């Protein structure tokens, strides 16, 4: 499989009155063609910030301060305004966290579809845009006569499907879904995700799926990245991340969720609260809440290292996997070393 | 259509209520104009005959012996018939006196509303879009400072600098006295020329609206559909106007309707200082002379203006906000 997106050492800062706060710190990952990559983690751990970075949607006071994002070999961070405008939605589109509020309330759905086609110069007439929009509504099972309605005339689930139809309008290669179903009930959520999966199989795009609902994620994704306080702490195939976690935080998350299938087990939480990013102590960010933390963990910051062919983990004391005891080696030797020093300096 | 009819019904009711209050309020106060007139007449040693009383009753259009509710219906009837009584200051029908100044006041206030709201809305959109920049600071602070100057001070200063000292603008009247009102370029030019300074003064005083529009727009720019607009690759200009401003103007329309009453009141002072022949001059003299019929007539006109502005705002919102449309249909 070839890589569609490659993110290396991404750092995103928010400028506040108390100086810069690093919301995303030195995150590297890639998304393969046709793959569903999940990003999980607590609220405020930087998941959505990464999603915004992939489309360069940050506005001051947020800014991408370090790292690189390559989309099919093109440097996204080097694009000028016009290139960026063309890149957005055509190559990468997004279903926003609050799909309820991301439609313009005073314009019809038809107008908002037309906006997309018009901005990218892909239709020659309004009628053509209407035809295309109707086709897209059919894909997400919305009656085509609803095209001329306003957003407030749709229910939450329908609005979400409209947004998905819009996201697919230009047949993007990457679809970012930023907690797309958080506001919906479980039944509607399931319907929508099944639809998305089906469309993904049909059109062959990749998905970056962001949620804090791990059990949902395990079912849908190929690989899952776990984030903690702005850092990617573990990246593994979906089936393995809960059953054979390497990072103590992933282990804790696995214990905090009931599985959809199988017997009910007692759920344990993770004691403590997430880190205050305005005041990051030295050492591992998870150390204060970690049951395995040693003195070294509080001094030395662990790097994201490759544990085996498919797995990466950032931990000095990773949990053992019975059959796969392999010595970790660096993920990207050439990139992680120099930029780590720059990130450390900035902090 | 149903919406417009229901709104019209509401405004009719509001108008009748206003007329009722307008009628009863002065009558609940002690004394009445006929008695006070007779009192003054007696003090000056005048003769009070039954003829004097009936002459006064004819002049004021009511009789002290008719019961109040009968007077009320008489009043309602004459209001609708355009008979608003006699002005005790000008000795002319109220309707005529108000009619003369009304035209100029409407011209001044109407032009003001169009110019001011267009200007402040566009400026508000622009500075919100450029917020945090140098332009934003200058325009925002400038408009707050200018609009917080008391209107009398602003009008007097502008009058003395631009009309009196520099002589760039006329010191009084709505058009040059040598001209006869006619639909000619010369006359219209003269009217426009005389309008500029009072209009400028009012527009300056109304600059505070920039802040309102700015904050509406900033609120809208924080909404998710704006980010989605950018993510869709829509051009900045379109995001600003069709996504941001298009939503931000909705509260402005309501504030426009609410401010019409205050604007009519404010224009009185401007008219008096610039000696503009609108209602300001007339009302100033009417108030000095306790000309109740004229003041009542003015109140009626104000009521109609405010209700009219609200009706227009309602219709505009109905057209501009689809959410309102569905709610009411």
Would you give an account of this structure?
The complex is a heterodimer of chains A (347) and B (329). Chain A has one domain: P-loop containing nucleotide triphosphate hydrolases (Rossmann fold, 3-Layer(aba) Sandwich). Chain A has ten helices and 13 strands. The longest helix of chain A has 18 residues. Chain A is globular. Chain B is mostly helical and 329 residues long. Chain B has two domains: 79 residues, no CATH class; 189 residues, MetI-like (MetI-like fold, Orthogonal Bundle). Chain B is 77% helix and 0% strand. Chain B has 14 helices and no strands. In chain B, helix 5 packs across helix 9, helix 7 packs across helix 11 and helix 11 runs antiparallel to helix 13. The longest helix of chain B is centred in the C-terminal third of the chain and has 38 residues. The mean pLDDT of chain B is 85. The interface between A and B is medium-sized, with 30 and 24 residues.
**CATH-scheme architecture of chain A:** 3-Layer(aba) Sandwich
Which stretches of chain A of 5+ consecutive residues score pLDDT under 50? Answer: 322-328, 330-347
Rg of chain A is 21 Å
Number of domains of chain B: 2
Q: Name the helicity range of chain B.
A: over 70%
Radius of gyration of chain B: 25 Å
Question: What is the total number of structural domains of chain A?
Answer: 1
CATH class membership of the largest domain in chain B: Mainly Alpha
Structural class of chain B: mainly alpha
Search tags:
heterodimer, A: 347 residues, alpha/beta, Rossmann fold, nine-stranded mixed β-sheet, four-stranded antiparallel β-sheet, 10 helices, 13 strands, disordered C terminus, B: 329 residues, mainly alpha, MetI-like fold, 2 domains, 14 helices, 77% helix, 0% strand, globular
Briefly say what this structure is.
The complex is a heterodimer of chains A (347) and B (329). Chain A has 10 helices and 13 strands.
């Amino acid at each position: 499989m070839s890589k569609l997106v490659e993110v290396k050492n991404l750092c995103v800062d928010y400028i506040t009155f108390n100086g810069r706060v690093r919301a995303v710190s030195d995150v590297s990952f890639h998304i393969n063609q046709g793959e569903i990559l999940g990003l999980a983690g607590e609220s405020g751990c930087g998941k959505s910030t990464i999603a915004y970075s992939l489309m360069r949607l940050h506005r001051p006071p947020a800014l991408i301060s370090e790292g690189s994002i390559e989309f099919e070999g093109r440097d996204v961070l080097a694009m000028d305004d016009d290139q960026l405008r063309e890149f957005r939605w055509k190559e990468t589109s997004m279903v926003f966290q609050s799909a309820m509020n991301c439609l313009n309330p005073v314009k019809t759905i038809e107008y908002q579809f037309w906006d997309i086609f018009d901005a990218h110069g892909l239709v020659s007439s309004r009628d053509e845009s209407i035809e295309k929009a109707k086709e897209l509504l059919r894909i997400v099972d919305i009656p085509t006569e609803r095209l001329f309605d306003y957003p407030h005339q749709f229910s939450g689930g329908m609005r979400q499907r409209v947004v998905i139809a819009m996201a697919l309008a230009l047949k993007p290669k990457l679809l970012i879904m930023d907690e797309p179903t958080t506001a919906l009930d479980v039944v509607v959520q399931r319907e929508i995700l099944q639809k998305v999966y089906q469309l993904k199989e049909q059109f062959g795009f990749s998905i970056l799926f962001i949620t804090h609902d791990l059990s949902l994620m395990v079912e849908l994704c190929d690989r899952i990245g776990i984030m903690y306080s702005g850092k990617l702490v573990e990246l593994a195939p979906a089936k393995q991340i809960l059953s054979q976690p390497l990072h103590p935080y992933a282990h804790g998350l696995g214990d905090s969720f009931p599985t959809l299938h199988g017997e009910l087990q007692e759920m344990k939480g993770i004691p403590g609260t997430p880190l205050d990013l305005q005041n990051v102590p030295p050492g591992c960010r998870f150390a204060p809440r970690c049951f395995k933390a040693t003195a070294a963990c509080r001094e030395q910051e662990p790097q994201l290292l490759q544990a085996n062919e498919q797995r990466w983990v950032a931990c000095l004391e990773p949990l053992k996997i019975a059959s796969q005891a392999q010595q970790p080696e660096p993920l990207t030797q050439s990139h992680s070393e120099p930029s780590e020093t720059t990130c450390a300096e900035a902090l | 259509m149903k919406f417009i009819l229901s709104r019209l019904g509401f405004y009719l009711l509001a108008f009748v209520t206003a007329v009722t209050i307008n009628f009863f309020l002065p009558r609940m106060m002690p004394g009445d104009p006929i008695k006070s007139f007779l009192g003054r007449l007696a003090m000056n040693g005048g003769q009070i005959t039954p003829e004097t009383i009936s002459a006064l009753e004819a002049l004021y259009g009511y009789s002290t012996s008719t019961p109040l509710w009968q007077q009320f219906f008489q009043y309602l009837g004459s209001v609708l018939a355009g008979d608003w009584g006699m002005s005790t200051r000008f000795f002319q029908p109220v309707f005529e006196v108000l009619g003369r100044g009304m035209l100029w006041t409407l011209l001044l206030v109407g032009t003001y509303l169009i110019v001011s709201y267009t200007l402040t809305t566009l400026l508000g959109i622009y500075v919100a879009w450029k917020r945090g920049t140098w332009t934003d600071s200058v325009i925002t602070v400038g408009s707050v400072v200018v609009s917080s100057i008391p209107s009398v001070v602003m009008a007097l200063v502008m009058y003395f600098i631009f009309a009196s000292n520099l002589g760039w603008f006329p010191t009084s009247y709505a058009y040059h006295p040598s001209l006869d009102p006619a639909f000619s370029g010369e006359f219209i030019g003269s009217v426009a020329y005389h309008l500029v300074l009072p209009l400028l003064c009012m527009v300056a005083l109304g600059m505070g609206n920039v802040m309102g529009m700015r904050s509406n727009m900033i609120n809208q720019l924080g909404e998710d559909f704006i980010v989605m607009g950018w993510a869709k690759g829509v051009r900045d200009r379109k995001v600003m106007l069709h996504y941001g401003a298009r939503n931000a103007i909705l509260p402005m329309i309501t504030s426009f309707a609410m401010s019409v009453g205050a604007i009519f009141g404010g224009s009185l002072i401007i008219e008096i200082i610039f000696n503009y022949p609108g209602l300001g001059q007339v009302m100033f003299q009417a108030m000095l002379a306790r000309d109740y019929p004229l003041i009542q007539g003015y109140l009626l006109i104000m009521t109609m203006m405010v209700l009219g502005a609200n009706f227009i705002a309602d219709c505009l919102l109905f057209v501009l906000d689809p959410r309102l449309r569905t709610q009411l249909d």
